[in-house]
Amino acid sequence: MARLIDKGTREYTCALIMMFFGSLAAFGAEYCLQPVIPILAQDFNLTPTQASLSMSFGTIGGTFLSNYGWSGIVVFETVILTIGLILAIILYKKKE
Fold first, then answer.
1. How far apart, in whole angstroms, are the C-alpha atoms of residue 75 and residue 86?
2. Integer Cα distance of 8 and 5 in angstroms
3. Radius of gyration of the chain, Cα coordinates, nearest whole angstrom
4. CA–CA gap between residue 40 and residue 51 (Å, rounded)
5. Residue 47: how many CA atoms within 13 Å on its side-chain side?
6. Largest CA distance in the chain
7. pTM, two decimal places
8. pLDDT per residue over 27-82, tens digit each?
9. d(C-alpha 15, C-alpha 6), whole Å
10. Is 31 helix (H, G, I), strand (E, B) or coil?
11. Residues contacting residue 58 through CB under 8 Å, at least 6 positions apart
12. DSSP H/E element including 64
C-alpha cells in the first residue's frame, strides 16, 4: 500500500506543483481545438456542430481510458486511424 504524503513537506509541495501542471496540460490538450472549430468548419465544409465533435470525441476517449487502460485504447485508436487513412487515400485517388 502506498504511503501518504504529509502536508507541509517538500514532497507535498512537489506533488501539488506536479498536479497543477498536469491538470494544466490535460485541459490545454482537451480545449486547444476550441478556437480552431470555425476554421475546421469552413475548410472542411462542416457545420459548427459537426466540427465541435472533435472535442466531444476527446472527452469520450478520456472515459474509455479510465475504464480500459492505455494499451488497449492505443491499439484500438491506431487500427481505426490506419483504416481511416487508407479509406481517405482510396477516396482521394478515386476523385483524380
1. 17
2. 9
3. 20
4. 6
5. 2
6. 66
7. 0.46
8. 777 777 788 888 888 888 888 888 887 777 766 766 767 677 667 777 787 888 88
9. 11
10. helix
11. 29, 30, 33
12. helix 53-68
Answer yes or no: are the C-beta atoms of 70 and 76 closer than 8 Å. Answer: no
Locus of grid cell 466531444: 56
Q: Alpha-carbon distance 62 to 21, whole Å?
A: 18
Cell of 24: 494544466
3-state secondary structure of 46: coil
Q: What is the pLDDT of residue 79?
A: 86
Q: For residue 17, give Cα distances in angstroms to 23, 25, 27.
A: 10, 12, 16
- Tracing cell 478556437 back to the chain, one arrives at 35
The whole-angstrom separation of Cα 80 and Cα 89 is 14
Instruction: Say how far apart CA 40 and CA 96 lie, in whole Å.
Output: 24
- Give the integer Cα–Cα distance in Å for 5 and 92: 56
